[in-house]
Write a structure and sequence with these properties.
Blueprint: E1 3-8, H1 15-27, E2 30-36, H2 48-58, E3 65-70, H3 74-80, E4 85-90, H4 93-109, E5 114-119, H5 129-137, H6 148-158
Length: about 160
């Protein structure tokens, strides 16, 4: 069985993230969406548990997608789950430099784990979690940027009608 891990903070999960998950689910036998607990970097909009639950609800239609959380190094999570491929989505060219550096760092500490890059569908290339948080924070709708379940949770959090 060939498994892959798709990591991120997913705060919140966007339609671009979901595009990568759907495509990975057709390529790999098993996809782990790993919600990384990187709260030291920034204050999340949704708690780790909220994100894991929302993503679980969003991907429930896929039998081969699992959702997990992890607070350590991604390569350690991968090794614990016998995964040797990390999948990363690319929205635009500026993502490539950051993602390549991470991939090379991961490969240096875990040479048996490779990173595969997938370009998101161009219709989602402008969507980022930070943009979604900013729009919602100013009371703007994020419908069409995030799955419906997530849109409702954001609307409830920000009291957007």
């Amino acid at each position: 069985m060939k498994s892959v891990v798709y990591p991120g903070s997913f705060d919140p999960i966007t339609l671009g993230h979901l595009d990568i998950i759907k495509r990975a689910a057709t390529i790999f036998d098993e996809v782990y969406v790993c919600v990384l607990n990187n709260s030291a970097k920034k204050t999340p909009l949704f708690s780790l548990d909220e994100r894991v639950k929302m993503i679980g609800d969003v991907v429930s239609e896929f039998d081969n997608v699992k959702v997990a959380s992890y607070g350590g190094l991604l390569v350690d999570f991968a090794k614990q789950h016998d995964i040797n491929v990390i999948i990363r989505g690319l929205r635009e060219i500026t993502d490539a430099g950051t993602e390549l550096s991470m991939a090379q760092g991961n490969h240096t500490v875990a040479p048996d784990i490779d990173t595969l890059f997938l370009a998101t569908d161009p219709k989602y290339s402008f969507i980022s979690s930070s943009m979604v948080r900013e729009f919602a924070g100013y009371g703007r709708s994020v419908e069409g940027f995030v799955p419906d379940i997530v849109n409702k949770a954001i609307n409830d959090k920000y009291k957007i009608n």
